[in-house]
């Protein structure tokens, strides 16, 4: 392995004061739920919203004067883009970022706002790499790789140093994997300080590139994932070697598990995470026996979630838990009945969010009306109570769905 603990300590010295030493918090509520002692390293609190600040800064600080003058180029779905753009702009270095056309709007605009020239090309990072290579060959820019670079790995490894300075007796660390830069860096730091620490990685099951590479399996990565920050088809060569030697196991988590983890972090810990950042928590939630009774940590590696997506996830969570429900009533169309039903729902302590009438469609009898209510409730039992009260009034009532898409 070409990156050492001395390299990581050197990186820590060089970037100190130019990146945030992020909070490393005890997740008390989640610890109680999971019967373990869980700590969260909140890299979402970096200025750019992700851990990428560290590796990008350390790589840029090690450019030659000639390289700085010509400028840098990077490929990224958003977080590495912002890290490179931020520090290049701060140091007066021109930066070009090639991003997939599928990158979230919020990440694209933030990257532009940080002073970088943004080029949108392709659907994945692998597509973007082709454009990067063309520009490097044509204009002589220096490529700042998002993960497969010794300086980048050393920069990300400073996270591990900080974690073990504050909690030296950790039993295990669980880290998301895209190309493997952050897991490689943390693993090198943790293993050098305490070789007994168990190290685990987590991938989105639509992009199991590192798992498959280590097992010499055919690559199957592809698809649309909310963990876009780790949607990497081709893992790093340097990172693969490090992870193969130091990491015990790589977990795979699906989209529903990632969604649950995002919601759990918001509700239980008041922490906003993007999909990739929540995968460590997703792995812990879905493997509780492995970590029961242990002192463990994971990295919330980014918080750059699109506001619209977060809003949708929160609403879906409410519906799934029975705290927001849509019911349909069918009744004779007569004055005062809507007020009577609304009053009954209010007496049952349901909070009506929205009401929709249907009386002009062919499938509704001429003397009848269908009225849909979207109601905020305590839980599923409360929903059943409301439905039962309406049916006792002689109002035909049914629950349409617990899903916002229905």
From TrEMBL:
Q: Which GO terms describe its biological process?
A: isoleucine biosynthetic process; L-serine catabolic process; L-threonine catabolic process
Q: Which UniProt keywords apply?
A: Amino-acid biosynthesis, Branched-chain amino acid biosynthesis, Isoleucine biosynthesis, Lyase, Pyridoxal phosphate
**One Pfam annotation, family name?**
ACT
Q: Where would I find the ACT domain in this sequence?
A: 326-404
**EC number, as in UniProt:** 4.3.1.17, 4.3.1.19
Q: Which cofactor does it need?
A: pyridoxal 5'-phosphate
Q: Does the keyword Lyase apply?
A: yes
Put simply, this protein is called L-serine dehydratase
